[in-house]
Amino acid sequence: MGYERRAFLLIAAAGSGGYAWWMRHGPAPPATPSRVNIATFDAHGVQTGVVEVEVVRKSESEWQKELPADAFSVTRRGDTEFAGTGAYDKFYQDGLYRCTCCGTALFDSRTKYASGTGWPSFTAPIAKENVVESPSSYFGIQQTEVKCACCWAHLGHLFDDGPPPANLRYCMNSVALRFVARVS
User: Which of 97, 108, 119, 158 fits as disulfide partner to 144, beta carbons 3.0 to 4.6 Å?
Assistant: First the structure.
């Protein structure tokens, strides 16, 4: 075996070991509360109040029975759908986007914009109470994960490359959302 190949294998093994150590000893995910405050919205998209609710907790097998395979993989395992494949990437009807797992209102179509990234993108959630933003890491790259506050479904990520004035892009997975048309 040549020197270059041995060096490559040594570097690959060290990198894998370092990544495994970091995954075990890196930052702990935030604790899931038992109750949360959720903003509620009527069919017109008007906020009707803020209520305290129990966090939705189900076993993995219960979620698997209720959700299509792609939605389960994204919302419960933190996967990401392929860019440009989601139903809501180029979808611009008027309404609300709700959590596919629990129905919590998450985004208003009025904050949706064409980001050109291949995923539905929003400038803000419908209510800060309804989402949880927490630091996450993907192969050492620091990100901000966005989850539903009511059931802790993985929705997508938050980036700082959105349009002014806030420059925020809530980059969501279509399978994590369920669109409900606004009642006129």
Answer: 158
Q: Which domain covers residue 12, as residue numbers?
A: 1-30
Looking at the structure of the chain, the number of domains it has is 2
* Helix (H), strand (E), coil (C) string for the chain: CCHHHHHHHHHHHHHHHHHHHHHHHCCCCCCCCCEEEEEEECCCCCEEEEEEEECCCCCHHHHHHHCCHHHHHHHHHCCCCCCCCCCCCCCCCCEEEEECCCCCEEEEHHHEECCCCCCCEECCCCCHHHEEEEEEEECCEEEEEEEECCCCCEEEEEECCCCCCCCCEEEECHHHEEEEECCC
How does residue 53 score in pLDDT terms, banded at 50, 70 and 90? Answer: very high
| 171 catalytically annotated | yes
Give the pLDDT band of residue 36 (cuts 50, 70, 90): very high
Q: Is the pLDDT of residue 150 over 80?
A: yes
**Same domain, residue pair 121 and 167:** yes
